[in-house]
Amino acid sequence: MKILITGGAGFIGYHLARHLLKNQENTLVLVDNLQRGRIDDDFKNLLEDSRVSFVQADLTDPAFYSTLDTDFDQVYHLAAVNGTKLFYQIPEEVLRINTASLMLILEWIRNLAKKPKLCFTSSNEAYASALEAFNQLPIPTPEAVPLVISDPYNPRWSYAATKLIGELFVIHYAKAYGFPAVIVRPHNFYGPRAGYDHVIPEMSQKIIAQTDPFIIFSPEETRTFCYITDAAKAMQMSMDSPATNNHPIETLHIGNNDEIAMLDLAKKMFAAGNWTPNNLEFKPSPPGSVKRRLADISKIKNLVGWEPETSLDDGLKATFEWYKLHPKK
User: Fold this and answer.
1) Which is catalytic among the residues 14, 76, 127, 159?
2) Which residues in 235-323 belong to E strands, given as ranges?
3) What does the DSSP 8-state code read for residue 218?
4) What is the C-alpha separation between 64 and 57, in angstroms, rounded?
5) Do 279 and 151 touch, CB atoms closer than 8 A?
6) Closest of 73, 84, 241, 58 to residue 155, by C-alpha
7) CB–CB of 288/166 below 8 Å?
8) H or E stretch including 96?
9) Residue in 114, 320, 122, 118 with CA at minimum distance from that of residue 204
10) Domain that residue 133 falls in
11) Does residue 320 lie within any of the structural domains?
């Protein structure tokens, strides 16, 4: 198959590309503006495969789409401004870039004679503030819950808003213009090359530096974490399955079942790094932070046969070892 991946130089895009190349019949075109993705040694090694080509481009530029090939079989639209710090710092750019790029991708597909199957990466952020707004959210959380933005004045929800409206765009464009699509909602993907601003990379760096006292934000908050190779396989299986070719299109959670509090996550990270600080310091998360997240992943298991394979201990160890070799510069 001929496959387009937007955000191809980013964390998910890179690992997805590696996974898709296991199929010798696949050829890949990776597009990235390199705002957050990067041409590091890992990515350079990926580009050595003759089946991979890379294009640096701005997906919010309408002129770019006239340069794209028109014979793709699949499109994975991963590109988005992500990272909680950026939600607070540049919410206007989060809103502009994420929404504009998706709209242009959909308009491009709409006008193609051969319409590829689309995978849109949404987020658990699209429904996360239901707990804050209504003090209720089913745990584990199924796909068919209300999508909620609790406070449009809080920049924390800028990213969530783009994913909420993005799901609506994909559902109704796919129906109106007759192309197959699937929506996936990632739940805390982690692993090597995930940047340096998320909780596990940040903990890894502090352990490497033996930071003491060791700060843990909201130690009682819980999350689940899905290792990136498992996540890439879930996305591929979701796209390749004929069960996701119908309308209305399917929305699928990708995550894990092992809910863990941030304090316990830190303890597992200390074990992975073979170091424990003498002093722990607890601080609250920023306003809007979600207290608990646990996805119901039974739908993807029943529909396409996927379930996570990597234990949290093994994944954290592999992730820590990568960050030890690739410290932030």
Assistant:
1) 159
2) 250-254, 260-261, 280-283
3) -
4) 7
5) no
6) 84
7) no
8) helix 91-110
9) 320
10) 2-195+225-257+295-310
11) no
User: Contact 226/287 with Cβ under 8 angstroms?
Assistant: no
Local structure of 189: helix, strand or coil: strand
Question: What tokens appear for 172 in the block?
Answer: 């109704």
Q: How many domains does the chain have?
A: 1
Give the single-character DSSP code of 278: S
Indicate the residue type of 126.
Answer: A
> Each residue of 54-97: pLDDT tens digit?
999 999 999 999 999 999 999 999 999 988 888 999 999 999 99
Looking at residue 214, its amino acid is F
Q: Is residue 242 one of the residues assigned to a domain?
A: yes
The tokens of 52 are what? Answer: 């991979």
Closest CA to 288 of 141, 148, 99: 148
Closest CA to 258 of 250, 248, 268: 268
Global pTM exceeds 0.85: yes
Fill in the DSSP letter of residue 162: H
Query: Per the domain annotation, does 49 fall within a domain?
Result: yes
Asked if residue 289 belongs to a domain, the reply is no
Would you call the peptide bond into 286 cis, given omega within 30 degrees of 0 as the criterion?
no
- 159 in catalytic set: yes
What is the spatial distance between Cα 200 and Cα 223, in angstroms, rounded to a whole number?
Answer: 12
pLDDT tens digits along 134-192: 666 788 888 988 888 888 999 989 999 999 999 999 999 999 999 999 999 999 999 99
pLDDT band with cut points at 50, 70 and 90 for residue 33: very high
Q: Which two tokens stand for residue 298?
A: 């039974």
d(CA 94, CA 79): 11
Q: Which two tokens stand for residue 175?
A: 């129906």
Q: Which amino acid is at 65?
A: Y
Is 193:42 a contact under the CB 8 Å cutoff?
Answer: yes
Tell me the CATH number at 71.
3.40.50.720
